[in-house]
Write a structure and sequence with these properties.
- With 422 residues, this protein is of the alpha/beta class.
- The chain folds into three domains: 61 residues, Nucleic acid-binding proteins (OB fold (Dihydrolipoamide Acetyltransferase, E2P), Beta Barrel); 197 residues, Rossmann fold (3-Layer(aba) Sandwich); 106 residues, Beta Barrel (OB fold (Dihydrolipoamide Acetyltransferase, E2P)).
- Helices cover 23% and strands 32% of the residues.
- It is built from nine helices and 21 strands.
- Strand 7 and strand 8 form a beta hairpin.
- The longest helix is centred in the first third of the chain and has 19 residues.
- It is globular, with a radius of gyration of 23 Å.
- Bound molecules: S-adenosylmethionine.
- The site of S-adenosylmethionine has 18 residues, from helix 5, strand 16 and helix 7.
Amino acid sequence: MTLYNIYEVDIVAFDHQGRGIGKIFDKTIFIPNALVGETVKFKLTTIKKKYLEGELVTILKSSNNRIKPICPYFSECGGCDLMHISYDNQLKYKENKVKEIFTKFTTINPSLIRNIVSCNDIYNYRNKVTLQVNNEVGFYKKKTNEIVKISKCSISNDGINKIIKELNKLKSFDNIKQIVIKSSKFNNEIMVVIYTSGNIDESDIIKNLSKHVSSIIKYDNSYQVIYGKPYITEKMNDLEFMISPSSFFQVNTEQAIKLYDLILKFADLKDDEIIVDLYCGTGTIGLYLSHYCKNVIGVEVNEDAIQDANKNKKLNGINNIDFISGDVTKVINDLRVSPDIIIVDPPRSGLDDNIINNLKKYKPNKIIYVSCNPITLARDLEKLSESYNIENITPVDMFANTYHVEVVVYLSLKKVGTYISI
Ligand SMILES: C[S@@+](CC[C@H](N)C(=O)[O-])C[C@H]1O[C@@H](n2cnc3c(N)ncnc32)[C@H](O)[C@@H]1O
C-alpha cells in the first residue's frame, strides 16, 4: 500500500457524508462520489491506522443509480456530495441516514421518523455562499486549501451567480481572503462582504458590483460599509427580516418557511402560552410564532443577530417578543419565566448537560428541537426522553445535493401519575 498510488476496489456501502465505502488492505476506505455496486479505480490520499481515504479516478463498473451531475465542478468542488444520484435517491439516503443514526445511538422507535420534507427546487436555492479567494474566486476542493475556480454555483440563487460572474472580472484580488455573498430570494437584495488582510482596490469593486447589489461591506477587524446600506432584507410569508453581514439566516428561505410551518404545527399554540426560543439568531422562529401566543423570549449569543432581531421586531410591528443577548448555557440558569414551550435550534454541537438539565427543570409542556446534526440530536433526545415523549421526528431537506439534513423533533412532557396513599 503506497500513498498516491492507484488501486481498484468494489464499493459496498454509502457513509453518512455521502462517500462510497470499500474494503482493501484489510482496512475500510472512503471514496467521495463512488456509489454502492460500483467498481472504481482510486488514488490513495490518506492512510490512517483504522481507515483509508481515496479520490475517485475512473469508474470501471457503474451503478444504475448514477446520474450526470449538472455542475461541471462537482467532481472537484467540496460543496456538494450527492449530485450524482437522483433527487428521490437523495431523499431516501437522508431518511435512512437519520434512521440508522437513531437506531445506533438511541432506544427511540425509528417508526417515529416521518417522511422527509422535500425541496421544490433542488438547484438555485442557496441564499448565501462563502467564496475562497487567491487571485481567483472559488470553493475549496474537499479537505484541501486548493481553490476550485468557479464561474457559477448550481445550487446558489441567480443573485449569487450574477455576482460570481462580476467578481471574475475584478482587476485585483490583492488582500482579499474571502467573499461572502448573501442574496435574498423573495426581496432580491444582495450583500457582498469582503474579508480582507490589508488595503483593497475598493473603487474597482464598487465599479463592478454596485449596479447589482444593495450593499458592499469590507471586514478588517470590523464591518465597514463601502457601498449602500449595512443590511439586506428577506421576506417570509408576511414577515420581513433584516440580515446583517455576520448574523445567521437560514440558507434555504423556501425550505425555512416549511420548517417554521412545521414548528407552528407542532407548537399548536394557545393565546395564553409563553414560548422560549433558544439560539434564536435574528429572531425568525419566535417572530413567526409570536402572533399565535402570549409572548416569546428569544436568546442568542451573537450581538449583531440580536440587534437584527430587535429591528425585525420593530419592522414587523410585533410587541410580544423580547430578545436576550447572551450565551444560552448561562442565560438558561435563570429565565425568570415558566415557559409552556421551549424551542431549541443549536449549532452542530447540540445541547450540553446544563441545558438538558435546565429543560427538565423548567418542564415546558412541549420542546421543539431543530437540529442540523442528527448525531448530537440523537444523543440529546436519548437524555431528554427520560422526561419527554418523542412524538414526531421529521427530517427536512434544507440542503439538496449535499449530505446534510435538518431534523425537527416534537417532544411532549411525560405526565407523572397521581398516587393515592392508603
Ligand atoms: C442554527 S442557528 C439558528 C438560528 C435561528 N433559530 C434561525 O432559524 O434562523 C444557531 C444560532 O445559535 C447561535 N448560538 C451559537 N452558540 C450559542 C450559545 N452558546 N448561546 C446562544 N446562541 C448561540 C448562533 O449565533 C446562531 O445564530
